[in-house]
Amino acid sequence: MTIGFSLFLIAVGAILRWAVSDSISGVDLSTVGLILLIVGIIGLVISLFMFFNASRSRGTVYPRDPNDPRTY
């Protein structure tokens, strides 16, 4: 899940939770909004963790010498 999609889920969840007052029979829109908020927040935390972890773990890669007699 990307950061943008997580923010989208948070926005849709917040709208359903606090801004929509209509009802659908058999579906509680407030609960659906809360679920989307939670999933969006979890996705955002995981995305940020992966982003910052990946940017820190990159090391320097040195090119191999083509004249090196050792084979890899």
Summarize the structure.
The chain is an all-alpha fold and 72 residues long. It has two helices and no strands. It has a domain of 46 residues.
Task: Outline the secondary-structure elements.
Blueprint lengths: L2 H17 L9 H29 L15
Number of helices: 2
Shape: rod-shaped
Low-confidence stretches: none
The percentage of residues in β strands lies in under 5%
For the termini, the CA-CA separation is: 37 Å
Q: Summarize the amount of helix as a percent range.
A: 55-70%
The number of distinct β-strands equals 0
Average pLDDT score = 86
Q: What tags apply to this protein structure?
A:
72 residues, mainly alpha, 2 helices
Structural account:
It is a single chain. With 72 residues, this protein is mainly α. The chain has a domain at 3-21 and 28-54. The chain contains two helices and no strands. The protein has helices at residues 3-19, 29-57. The longest helix is centred in the middle third of the chain and has 29 residues, at 29-57. The radius of gyration is 22 Å and the shape is rod-shaped. The model has no long low-confidence stretch (mean pLDDT 86).
